[in-house]
Specification:
This protein has about 230 residues and is of the alpha/beta class. The chain folds into 2 domains: about 150 residues, P-loop containing nucleotide triphosphate hydrolases (Rossmann fold), CATH 3.40.50; about 60 residues, no CATH class. The chain contains 7 helices and 10 strands. Bound molecules: adenosine-5'-diphosphate (ADP) and magnesium ion.
Amino acid sequence: MSALEIDNVCKDFGSTRVLEEVSLAIDSGEFLILVGPSGCGKSTLMNAIAGLEPVTSGRIKVGGDDITWRTPAERDIAMVFQSYALYPSMTVHGNIAFGLEMRKVPKAERDAAVERVADLLQISHLLNRKPSQLSGGQRQRVAMGRALAREPQIYLFDEPLSNLDAKLRVEMRTEIKKLHQRLGTTIVYVTHDQIEAMTLADSIAVMRDGRILQLGTPDEVYNDPV
Ligand SMILES: Nc1ncnc2c1ncn2[C@@H]1O[C@H](COP(=O)(O)OP(=O)(O)O)[C@@H](O)[C@H]1O
Ligand SMILES: [Mg+2]
């Protein structure tokens, strides 16, 4: 059984079709990278998986359960956006704990989770700061921490490194790779960076104009591109 199954998903915005019969099956523990030119529908597909945009037709399943019509909160999925979207009035600790609080996780458990991810992402010394007091790279780690505090069935990352400078991108890429190896979680990750795609992915899905053109290992996509 696939960890995530996308079955013939179409999405229209008004009269414009943005996703055209997208189908994908992702195994448990797989790191799938979604690549494609700007505007091809990558974020729309991620938002549909997360439940932030309703699909026009088709189905989405997680661990065999049809979640197509569940709210984002009812889906066992955590998402990291391109824009970090941290709550400016909350501390780093508050931001990381927020998703758990929404899910009514008891305080002691929340605090333990915050400590665990802060340690992992090396931001323990920043927990009492507000987002405005952080660098771009630190904010990015907090956004990542907020997702990692939970242990969902699936992580979605939508170009999480695109606002970082080159050096930090390389560092964070290594960090994400290690996290995946350590946690063994299923990940769908959007990037338009070829190096990121080649180094992180178990498999790559190439999208254009709302369709999946090719799905294969990095090797297959690189050496035998459709
Ligand atoms: N809320 C929306 N309303 C109308 N059109 C949208 C909306 N969101 C995205 N689009 C359009 O859908 C297409 C795909 O967008 P998007 O999924 O953001 O692409 P990508 O993430 O691959 O750059 C684009 O043409 C975009 O303009
Ligand atoms: Mg996008």
